[in-house]
Amino acid sequence: MSTSFTMIGGEGPDSYQKHSKWQGGLLEAAKEKINEAISTKLDIDFTSNLVNIADFGCSTGPNTFKAVQTIIDAVEHKYQKENNYEEIEFQVFFNDSSNNDFNTLFKTLPQARRYYTAGVPGSFFGSVLPKRTLHVGVSSYSLHFVSTVPKEIKDHDSQVWNKDIHCTGLSKEVVKAYLDQYKIDMGSYLNARAQELLSGGLLLLLGSCLPNGVQMSETLNGMMLDCIGSALNDMAEKGLIDQEKLDTFKLPIYVAYASELKQTIEDNGFYTIERFDIISNENEEIPIDEEFLTVSFKVTVGGIVASQFGQDAMEKTFEVVKIKTQEILPQLANAKPEMQYLIVLRRI
Ligand SMILES: C[S@@+](CC[C@H](N)C(=O)[O-])C[C@H]1O[C@@H](n2cnc3c(N)ncnc32)[C@H](O)[C@@H]1O
């Protein structure tokens, strides 16, 4: 059974919509490179002046609007420059899991947009669009999810049972179980997009990966996931959540090493890798303190915690997370950095 992991919806103070500036920073930082990649690498046979764009793992916005607008501006710029520009029409498909808050997404669409829209709910590990219809696809911060938590690590009686909520610990077997699932899922994602994309179309992938030699537990994300795990343990000790439920609760996340990501793409064989860039996503306006970190993780991980333990328990857990985050701020300040990437793939 697949595990659904959506962001907290709505437009309220604890929503992804209000707290996803950091993720949006990568789209800003990658804008020029995306523009250049579309200008030089997109090679579609233009028969109908209709360009189809899709965002896989769009959440509620506003980052998805930034992603599609960046692509649209770049496509218009390219075809204006090449002098074969009649009026191009754009159709944008927003994809996410069916329990994503699509209502908020459509309610907050930019007023001044010049594109048609449609929601295409469903897992991006399978097809969500008809074959050979897509010109440019994008996924931003969506590919560190796996479709399901490997079952052996959830089983208390298994030798590879993972006592933590994630694979930040040093058990090689647990990490391998996650990696095996990641390779299957990433392969399915690339196969599905390969069916949907037209030859010469582009797939833009953005997100975080691990530099070689860095353990997840040494990064800020790993430390924060451990902090959430520790807060959940405290909750179970106080009897506020069920210990058995906690023992089987694992996050369906795998942050790959850059080399694993590259290898998975090369093994797939449907694409040429046009760019594999490491980009700095340092937003100095965002203060890295307990307020920011707690709410950032609440809007991303809070949904799955609430679906397992209930809304009340989730709220209490994140109160504990905030206290624990404040205590570990010096360690967090010395966390080893992850790497942010922009990968541009061209469908062969
Ligand atoms: C961290 S959010 C990123 C949202 C947005 N792209 C951004 O850059 O801010 C990841 C999104 O991926 C979606 N997602 C995860 N697994 C998915 C799947 N199998 N199929 C479709 N969407 C998925 C989640 O629901 C979530 O909305």
TrEMBL record:
Highest taxon, organism lineage: Eukaryota
InterPro entries in alphabetical order: MeTrfase_7, MeTrfase_capping, SAM-dependent_MTases_sf
SUPFAM superfamilies for the chain: S-adenosyl-L-methionine-dependent methyltransferases (SSF53335)
Methyltransferase keyword on record: yes
Transmembrane segments: none
Coiled coil: none
GO terms, biological process: methylation
Gene Ontology molecular function, alphabetical: metal ion binding; methyltransferase activity
Keyword terms, alphabetized: Magnesium, Metal-binding, Methyltransferase, S-adenosyl-L-methionine, Transferase
Pfam families registered for this protein in UniProt: Methyltransf_7
Name of the protein in question: Farnesoic acid carboxyl-O-methyltransferase
